[in-house]
Amino acid sequence: MSPSRLTQTPGVIIRGASLAVVYATALVAGWTVVPAVAAQQTESRVRANSGPSQVEDTAADTAERFGRVPQRFVIDLGGYLPNVSTHARVSTHLRTGSNVNFENQLGLAPNTQTFNADASWRISRHNFLSFDYFSFGRSGTKQIGDSIVWGSNVYRAGSTIDGNAGFSYYGLSYRYYIWRESNWELGPGFGIDGLNVSSSLAVQVATSGPRTARQDSAHTKASVTVPVPLLGLFGDWEFVPRVFLKGGGQFIYINNINNYGGRMADGILGFEWYPFHNFGLGGVYHYIALHVSKTSARTGNSVKFDYTVQGPALYVAVTF
Question: Which value, to the nearest 10 degrees, does the dihedral of the CA atoms of residues 185, 188, 192, 196 take?
């Protein structure tokens, strides 16, 4: 059998998600713009009645978080230790593919580790922007007990299969903290998670000759690159000086727009401790659940991924 490939391109998926982005933007605008305008009007009245010395949103105040910890810019660097569950299906218009569990059926390790980076910018007292990134890949080899239909290829029971799976995450979120008090803040957010998920299967064979080497045949790869718009809620709480509880959750559901459908949940819960003025330590539990499917209108071929990625992330934080 000849190698084949089924790949969903970003452009088609972006068009498929456009309607969801419009709806999400309109809703977030209602959450953020109206409170922002009201806050600006209130601040104008304070300036008019109290003078410049009593205006809260000065440059110095904006740069300070609770407990006098500078928070204008923050960079977090550390490691992420996720547990991963992967299910994937690749089908053609003539044949429905098998739902493949990559950990159980193909021997991919469910636990992995990767570098994690995060950067954030507090634009003003209420406006906040953050970016998060991590990426990992896994591979495994196993003799399968049941036949697997994967795209145009059929891998027979008893074959030794090489499996590979990759996951890349780019998380961008904007938050507007409507409620902000002396030791806590809470508000809605709008985010876009850029995701690239890929999986491939191939039959392992050995060549004969002076040197025996392993080769793969009947190689089939499927991948999806997708921007996912998300709506969520975020909050921070300084329950003791310089120790913060932080959390947030985002979610989206898209039902068959332009042959594209899916849902995604993205949440974090953790803490940060700042023993020094510009240096802190943190740990969060990051949970991502993704279900995405895409059917090609031209060929009728389809790909479906179910990913759950969850685990602790530990990091150091530098603020300035």
Answer: 70
